[in-house]
Design goal:
Blueprint lengths: L9 H7 L3 H21 L6 E4 L18 E4 L13 H4 L9 H11 L11
Antiparallel strand pairs: 1-2
Length: 120
């Protein structure tokens, strides 16, 4: 199974530049791109979205706030969240994942990692 990784830098750069209007435009363009891709994906393909960190314009630097994540595709239970943003995703079915947990979840879905039963 293959994985395609796309890193969109524009929202991060506009956060560093303290340019909230351009950051909004960059996020809106990202949203359009994801929508176009999602409409064309076969049913047996997973799509995952995550930010690597927050970069609020007011601060201009990376911060440690949780970032929104989403995984969709076959065998993924749908939750009630309809918007991809920090506030809504915080209440989604994935809960709060570390970056490592997010990647391991993707690897497990791709068949690279088998579920292990941990006995204590």
């Amino acid at each position: 199974m293959d994985m395609v990784y796309v890193h969109v830098k524009a929202p991060d750069v506009k956060g560093h530049d303290n340019d909230p209007f351009e950051k909004v435009k960059a996020i809106e363009m990202f949203d359009q791109m994801v929508g176009l891709i999602a409409k064309q994906l076969p049913e047996n393909v997973y799509m995952a979205l995550a930010a690597d960190h927050s970069t609020p314009c007011e601060i201009g630097e990376h911060t440690g706030e949780p970032v929104p994540v989403v995984i969709s595709g076959p065998s993924i239970r749908r939750d009630r969240i309809l918007q991809y943003n920090e506030l809504d995703c915080a209440h989604g079915g994935l809960g709060h994942l570390t970056g490592n947990e997010f990647v391991r979840t993707l690897h497990r879905l791709m068949g690279y990692v088998k579920n292990k039963v941990i006995r204590r």
